[in-house]
């Protein structure tokens, strides 16, 4: 009963006012999923249909928009028939339960939008998806209850470039380990009680952090080390108001030293990034070489086949010529015998 109450409380926190009435929405909205192509990919649009489950869809879809529905649970077989999906939008549903194998078949998944749901627990398997670059978890008001105890297999296998945790009521950020590809990190609108540079030292390609309305409860001097880290690493941090950082109080805060541990974590992240890039380059090189070699072998086999056909044809022609010649000699002999007789 308490669990159900929490879920419905989360839904209440997550519902926003809409201009259209329910009757107007029903009158104007489509009644079933539609299909269209975008960027040479087949997409299925099922948004706003008030569906409680994903219906049977065409095979081969790469984009699935199932936002603004009433889906509550993601099981291992919910998406198992759509292994080609690259972009999956499940925002504004009522999802509270995600099975650990819910996305196991989606090895090509690049973007996953789970924003504005009531997720109670986040499975570690999401962070091990081999192609996942963008993950939206914003607007899950109950996620903070389990996020602090989330056990993540490290290093994270997903090549995340964007991670959005805004408006999730988080007071302490989880330890993600090394995120060598992360560029954009949105942790805005969270009541953070701490913001340490150690959290960002394993994000060596980080370019922007959105901290809007997340550090208002922190003392100025507690921010000094992180601000210095951002400045030294050229990380742009977004705030709704920078005035607190432009005060004499902030200037008078003791300037902390950047520890060797922070720099070691940063350099380790750079090494992992370089290794990953080298692996990709090597893979592309081998694919190119393999493609060239395969092309050469195909050409060589084709040449052998042509030569074989040519030899067979030549042998047949020679045999025909010999037969014709023999027939000619026989005919000539017959004529000569006739003439003698």
UniProtKB/TrEMBL annotation:
Transmembrane portions of the chain: 286-307
Name this protein carries in UniProt: Immunoglobulin superfamily containing leucine-rich repeat protein 2
Keywords, ordered alphabetically: Leucine-rich repeat, Membrane, Repeat, Signal, Transmembrane, Transmembrane helix
Pfam families found in the cross-reference section: LRR_8 (PF13855)
Stretch forming the signal peptide: 1-17
Alphabetized Gene3D superfamilies for the sequence: Ribonuclease Inhibitor
SMART domains (UniProt xref): LRR_TYP
InterPro entries given in the database record: Dev_Immune_Receptor, Leu-rich_rpt, Leu-rich_rpt_typical-subtyp, LRR_dom_sf
């Amino acid at each position: 009963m308490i669990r159900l109450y929490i879920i419905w409380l989360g839904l209440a926190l997550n519902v926003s006012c809409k201009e259209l009435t329910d009757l107007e929405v029903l009158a104007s909205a489509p009644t079933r999923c539609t299909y269209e192509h975008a960027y040479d990919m087949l997409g299925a649009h099922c948004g706003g249909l008030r569906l409680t489950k994903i219906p049977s869809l065409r095979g081969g879809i790469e984009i699935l928009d199932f936002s603004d529905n009433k889906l509550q649970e993601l099981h291992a077989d919910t998406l198992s028939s759509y292994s080609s999906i690259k972009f999956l939008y499940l925002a504004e549903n009522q999802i509270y339960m995600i099975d650990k194998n819910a996305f196991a078949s989606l090895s090509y998944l690049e973007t996953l939008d789970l924003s504005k749901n009531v997720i109670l627990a986040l499975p570690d398997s999401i962070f091990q998806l081999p192609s996942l670059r963008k993950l939206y978890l914003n607007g899950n008001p109950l996620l903070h209850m389990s996020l602090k105890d989330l056990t993540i297999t490290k290093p994270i296998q997903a090549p995340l470039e964007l991670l959005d945790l805004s408006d999730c009521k988080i007071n302490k950020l989880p330890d993600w380990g090394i995120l060598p590809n992360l560029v954009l990190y949105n942790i805005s609108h969270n009541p953070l009680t701490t913001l340490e540079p150690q959290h960002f030292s394993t994000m060596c390609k980080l370019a922007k952090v959105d901290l809007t309305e997340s550090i208002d409860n922190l003392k100025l001097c507690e921010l000094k080390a992180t601000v210095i880290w951002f400045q030294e690493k050229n990380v742009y941090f977004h705030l709704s108001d920078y005035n607190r950082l432009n005060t004499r109080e902030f200037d008078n805060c003791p300037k902390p030293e950047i520890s060797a541990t922070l720099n070691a974590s940063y350099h380790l992240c750079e090494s992992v990034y370089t290794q990953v890039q080298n692996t990709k380059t090597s893979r592309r090189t081998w694919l190119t070489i393999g493609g060239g070699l395969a092309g050469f072998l195909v050409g060589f086999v084709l040449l052998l086949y042509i030569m074989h056909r040519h030899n067979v044809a030549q042998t047949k022609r020679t045999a025909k010529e010999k037969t014709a010649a023999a027939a000619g000699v026989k005919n000539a002999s017959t004529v000569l015998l006739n003439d003698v007789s």
